[in-house]
Amino acid sequence: MPIRILPDHIASQIAAGEVIERPASVVKELVENALDAGATEITIEVQGAGKRMIAVTDDGVGIPRAELGLAVSRHATSKLARAEDLFRVETLGFRGEALASIGSVSRMTVESRSENSEVGAQLRVDGGKLYPPSEAGLPSGTRVIVQDLFYNVPARLKFLKTDSTEIRNIEALVTRYALAYPHVRWQLLIEGRRSLQTSGNGDRREVLANLYGVDAAREMLSVDFDEGGYHIHGFISPISLTRSNRREITVFVNGRWVKDIAVTAAIIRAYHTLLMVGRFPIVVLFLDVPSEAVDVNVHPAKAEVRFREGDLVFTRTQRAVRRALLAHSPVPDLRPKQFWGLQPEKEGDGVDPAWEMAAEIKTDGDLQRDQPQMRIHTGSTEKDRLPLLRLIGQVAATYLVAEGPDGLYLIDQHAAHERVLFEQIMAQQDQDSVPSQSLLEPAQVVLPPDQARLLDEQLPVLADLGFQVEPFGPNTFSVRAIPAIFTGGDPALALHALVEDFEEDETPLASTHEARITARICKRMAVKGGQTLSSDEQQALLGSLERCQSPRTCPHGRPTMIHLSADLLERQFGRRGAR
Q: Which of 28-37, 244-253, 352-361, 497-506 is least confident?
């Protein structure tokens, strides 16, 4: 096959494929251009999950009409003049590829007026083809409208996720930049509905309140660390406020959102011994380092950077986070008598303060090992059923000890309660009669925009499960009623359970979508390891577990109990000899 030079339009589409992966990539490039232009107000409008239309409007310095055609050309930029400038990049954009790449895979219109011009100009690009600019009456700033994304590369459209997923990616991206640039007034409109709006007053904690709620924003701890020209600042969550994945760890380097494995590992290492396995903090951290100490030209989408002194960055990041964490959240004192559960028993005790971190959490490896056992039983067999058990007591405020006719049973109270709640609510749903308990005062729950969209999609399912949840303003929901079997529980936990692990299918063999959601909620609402139960509560839990159809595993497949047969005990004590 002969070697040939590719036509310009094909070369442009190939280059665009490295920069523009999905609608969120378009938003990222346009937002970074607006920030580089000194914008103080940025509005993003999205229709059709970004495939039909994306419009980004800013009040920056604008583009002169004479340079408008040059701005959409490949490798045209005002941010670099010499090769040496690549090693001292202080702007978000620098390659001059964004507008050219977007224009080659869409129908793009650029409208702009510079501060010194009385009349603006409009330029249209259709699949890489430029049309002559024309005059237009415009306010100062720039507006870029991208329509019919990937219309000329339909194969790329087939690889996009669902509309809901693409919208969540856009919302997550804009949310991060709103945190990084609180002095900018942000507005995000999805299908004409306001998803995010900030005041632009420069108060980053106010933006946190818009995203996570006032209570969570108040709990966040400040980080302010200066050493050797490195300034590390931002917010981290205390040990009482965690998530089940790393998605809420956001890192900016010199104002640029990046995904850096080493920095993320340093943050997690700073929480070592303070969080349970499988729990991760909420972090918004900004690393301001000398521009010559970081190389931003190592990834097509500029999503990764390379540090000249990576070990030093790791050490200082860990030290900054750990110092702030220990200054505000001292390590709890786990005294022996608390460990062995010897404190006086109180009826209906909640989680002991010294054990608030002792939630029952599994690692990814545990989930993978559990998966072959995950199943929802539609019936029961004699093998599945438990014999009548006699309660002996509670060990370490986490396990119940019971005696059966064939030996000893050690029961994980959290997993057992998960199974009980799951079967009770599923049985009620099968009968179309899930009783609800109205709350005296509705609970308000604030979520980030991308998680709020997830929850909004699940409201009909929640109604079937006995929840009464209503939208209550932007990214805010009001919980008015919960299933009666969850009475006394925190309704906010149930809502967070739906959105925190949504991308992790915890019950892949569950027969229905409702079953997966129910299992997820039950995991959060069940009693936790480390929670002291009264004798009556222990007996009630044991009796309910005996009546379950599948009492030996929780809804996620993890065992609820360990059986030590009488024969095994006799051999261990040498009463029958070793065999």
A: 352-361
> How far is it, in rounded angstroms, from Cα 200 to Cα 179?
10
Instruction: Report CA dihedral (5, 7, 11, 12) to the nearest 10 degrees.
Output: 160
| H or E element at residue 5 | none
Q: Which residues pair with 422 in a beta bridge?
A: none
Residue 344 lies in a domain: no
Token pair, residue 453, equals 């969209």
Domain span at residue 229 reads 220-328
Using the Cα atoms of residue 80, residue 81, residue 87 and residue 90 in order, give the sign of their dihedral.
negative
* 354 pLDDT above the threshold of 50: no
Residues 234 and 221: their CA atoms lie apart, in Å, by 8
Are 277 and 242 within 8 A, CB to CB? no
Question: Of all helices (H) and strands (E), which one includes residue 403?
Answer: strand 399-404
* Contact yes or no for 60/91 (Cβ under 8 A): no
pLDDT of residue 174: 94
Residue 550 in contact with residue 556, Cβ under 8 Å? no
Tell me which of 268, 295, 328 is where a domain ends. Answer: 328
DSSP structure class, residue 247: G
Q: Which residues, 6+ apart, have CB-to-CB distance to 375 below 8 Å?
A: 509, 557
Q: Is residue 577 part of a domain?
A: no
pTM of the predicted protein model? 0.69
Does 39 map to a domain? yes
Summarised one tens digit per residue, pLDDT across range 477-518 is: 998 888 888 877 777 777 777 776 554 443 333 334 677 778
